[in-house]
Design a protein that fits this description.
Length: 698
């Protein structure tokens, strides 16, 4: 085998230190602006390659230098320099390899977008010369005195935030309009531009070249980026970390100054903009940039802290090897030797990242499904699931199959086989015999009480939970408008009554008596109606029972008509009301034995029997205790004056076999319904089928 000739434009540069603390060297490819970290073996081979003409001669030289490098390592290094086009090609094989690589990059726009729409980088400017001038202007802002001043002002802003917390929270309402959205966009642009300039300026401060700045599209959402590839040149790990953390520090400083400004500014757009600058900087840094699970600032900071280049590829490879050891105990060495603590940290980091990415990509798939038009949404959803979730799993299973010759009947394989078949049995065998549904115990004799007309609270005669008898006064109210109308009606009735009396005494006016009497009858009828309306807003108990308030009542408060104020219930007469999802309804039969378990931990459990199952799904949920907006288990969204369930639910009623002597107004809990045995995977399949059927309409 001939030894390839290295390209003359490659540059060998001193690097930092590797994980073992040893000196590291970098190989720089100026054509692709790419750096390669060299191991001691690679550096030694690179040293002798320009002087060697054949593989046999290379082995001779290495043996003379007492270099312990086997043939496999030499072959790996030669493949590395060829695959990365670091050699001068003179034969047709090399030309063909370059041609194949070039053709692979020349894909049609559809396939390119399909593979890259999650993250597309678009370089816009080469800012190196501009940054040199900007660095001179901004360097004083990084002085210890200025930074100390920012922290002092920010500390004042933090204390002001706690003093004015209610005002701070309500400021968010300002953004629910077009003007707020404009300030939202401007503030976001300012924060992200300064974030990227922070990276670039610190890189220039350390004498590096910033090759480009531009826009990256994350699921077609634009974010800015800065190319700091030259940070590889730095031998001081602390300086690399400074470049990585510069953007986060800039956002922190913006947040502190924005909090200080918010505490001093009057209400208005400027104060709202300061509010958004603060919240966006803090939350954006904590939730996105600081996360080490995606390749943002937090990831590179962790890699620099650990002194590990290519942190995720190396830790993922180690975790896959560890997984194979746990599952099958294969006789193969780890990809890299690490100390025990670091080894398991990297394995833990990999598993956490995989779980995070699974839910992230699943969320992105759902996002593009619901926000794109349906046909495109379905297509992108399938791409997300196959490309980012199914493909890595398939690749790992292929690795297992390729190593099938190494499998043997060991303790690990026996354990894995037992767990696998146990999971299969639990998933597909019918063993579950009950389903659980949100439920509530309510009185069967319950009367809701409200006002027929608007009124003002004058006096409250009862307390919450008080026992009353039929006819007892509950609430006295006032309605000045109604009282004024009654006074006018009484005056008009008196005047008409006097006119009737006067006309009766005068023979001259007898012909008008019938007209006046008719008007008097109308006035008295209207007065009677008004008095009935006033009597109707003086609330009395329609039946005996216990009073339960449904809203806060206080003197002088105005109450709207038809608004529930309280209800009276009979505590000894109660039933269980439950709501079951449509996918579970085929298992439920009338007369089934059920068990109600209260959530409060006080009332315990009650045996019951199903007595009614409604044939149609409910349109609105009349029990706020069960809704997701009040901490319940049923997802709802507001609609008109009520709440509508997101999924289809059917109402069930059950009678208590041994009802308690007395219960509160409502007891929230779960209803366990006995059913025929069923398999969990069958329930999942039915739910997926229902989802596909529901979403299949265009």
């Amino acid at each position: 085998m001939d030894i390839p000739l290295l390209r003359q434009d490659l540059r060998l540069l001193p690097g930092g230190k590797d994980e073992a603390g040893e000196k590291e060297w970098l190989l720089y490819d100026p054509l692709r602006h790419q750096y390669f970290a060299l191991s001691r073996t690679a550096l030694l081979l690179l040293r002798y390659l320009p002087k060697i003409g054949s593989l046999a001669e290379l082995k001779t030289v290495l043996s003379q230098k007492d270099a312990q490098i086997d043939d496999h390592e030499v072959a790996q290094f030669l493949d590395f320099i060829r695959d990365n086009f670091l050699v001068v090609g003179s034969d047709m094989a090399h030309v063909q390899k370059i041609s194949v690589a070039q053709d692979a990059r020349k894909t049609n726009w559809f396939m390119w977008l399909l593979h890259n729409y999650l993250f597309i980088k678009i370089p816009l400017i080469r800012p190196d010369r501009f940054l040199e001038g900007l660095l001179l202007l901004t360097r004083p802002l990084a002085s210890p005195m200025v930074r100390a001043a920012i922290y002092v002002l920010g500390l004042y802003g933090v204390f002001a935030l706690f003093w004015q917390w209610d005002s701070f929270v309500t400021t968010f309402d300002y953004f629910f309009n077009w003007q707020g959205l404009i300030y939202f966009g401007l503030a976001l642009a300012v924060v992200k531009i300064t974030h990227e300039l922070g990276h670039a300026l610190v890189a220039k401060h350390h004498g590096l070249r910033v090759s480009s700045m531009g826009v990256a599209l994350l699921v077609l959402f634009p974010v800015l980026y800065t190319d700091n590839t030259d940070a590889w040149r730095l031998t001081d790990q602390r300086k690399k970390l400074q470049i990585v953390m510069a953007g986060l520090l800039v956002e922190l400083h913006i947040a502190l100054l924005a909090l200080f400004s918010w505490s001093l500014l009057p209400d208005g757009p400027a104060r709202s903009a300061a509010f958004f600058l603060a919240t966006t900087s803090i939350l954006g840094s904590l939730l996105v940039n600081l996360s080490p699970l995606m390749r943002f600032d937090g990831y590179y900071a962790l890699a620099d802290f650990l002194g590990m280049q290519n942190l995720q590829p190396r830790s993922f490879e180690l975790a896959r090897w560890q997984l194979r050891q746990w599952l099958f105990g294969l006789p193969e060495n780890a990809p890299e030797p690490f100390p025990t603590t670091k080894h398991y940290f990297l394995v833990f980091y990999s598993f956490v990242t995989w779980i995070y990415r699974f839910f992230l990509f699943l969320g992105i798939a759902l996002l593009v499904y619901f926000f794109a038009f349906k046909l495109l949404g379905i297509f992108l959803f399938i791409v997300e699931i196959i490309w980012f979730i199914a493909r890595p799993v398939y690749a790992e299973i292929k690795r297992w199959w390729a190593r099938r010759a190494l499998f043997s009947w060991t303790r690990q394989t026996r354990r894995t086989t037992a767990v696998f078949f146990t999971v299969i049995l639990l998933a597909f065998m019918p063993w579950r015999t009950s389903i659980t549904a949100p439920a509530i115990i309510e009185s069967t004799f319950k009367t809701s009480i409200h006002l027929p007309d608007p009124a003002q609270v004058a006096k409250l005669h009862v307390t919450n939970g008080q026992t009353v008898q039929k006819g007892d006064a509950l609430l006295s109210t006032l309605n000045p408008t109604l009282d004024h109308e009654i006074a006018l009606a009484e005056r008009k009735a008196r005047l008409l009554s006097l006119q009737v009396t006067r006309y009766a005494a005068s023979l001259k006016n007898l012909r008008d008596k019938l007209v006046i009497e008719q008007r008097l009858a109308e006035a008295q009828s209207r007065l009677s109606g008004l008095r009935k309306r006033r009597a109707a807003i003086q609330l009395h108990a329609p039946s005996s029972g216990v009073v339960q308030f449904t809203r806060h009542l206080a003197p002088d408060h105005w109450l709207e008509p038809e608004q529930g104020l309280f209800f009276i219930y009979e505590p000894r007469q109660s039933q269980v009301v439950s709501f079951v999802a449509e996918t579970q309804m085929h298992r439920i039969q009338k007369g089934a034995e059920v068990k109600f378990i209260a959530d409060d931990g006080v009332h315990g459990k009650f045996a019951a029997r199903l007595i009614a199952i409604e044939d149609t799904a409910i349109e609105q949920l009349a029990y706020p205790e069960l809704t997701s907006t009040h901490g319940g288990a049923i997802a709802v969204h507001a609609e008109g004056n009520g709440t509508r369930t997101v999924d289809a639910y059917y109402k069930l009623r059950a009678e208590l076999l041994h009802p308690p002597k007395q219960i509160g107004a409502n007891i929230v809990g779960r209803l366990h319904i006995e059913t025929a045995p069923y398999a969990p995977m069958g329930a999942l399949g039915r739910a997926i089928s229902a989802l596909l059927l529901r979403e299949s309409g265009f």
